[in-house]
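Attaching the record inline, Q. Sequence:
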Amino acid sequence: MWWLIAAVGLGIPLVVTAMPEFGMFAVGAIAGAVTAALGGGTVPQVLVFVVVSVALIAVVRPIANRHRGQSPRLASGIDALKGRTATVLERVDAGDGGRIKLAGEVWSARALDGDHVYEPGQQVDVVEIEGATALVI
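Structure, as predicted:
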């Protein structure tokens, strides 16, 4: 019974702090409770708790740290539009800008390079989005 109380007690900081180590200790406490339910004494219960907790930290924590450092593979929102190709609908320049069709929607656009002018029908690449205006090359 004490192991289950310990598991719940370790699960609360897991939820509050989002530190997975508390979850690993909670699983170790559940393993200790299973050992107690199977009739194991105090020493085997503590040994199972320690072994399971340390094994989870040694195996799961490095995997979690590797995945935590990775950037998301699926871009969404404005980030998904950067690098896409668009079609010029109205003349686009660096001054007044113009209109492009990007991802099925009409966007205001401005040439990134002040010397370039893009005419209707040309394909351009979106470099950046500033507010509701696409910067194109």
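The mean pLDDT is 88. The first strand starts at residue 85 and ends at 90.

More tomorrow.
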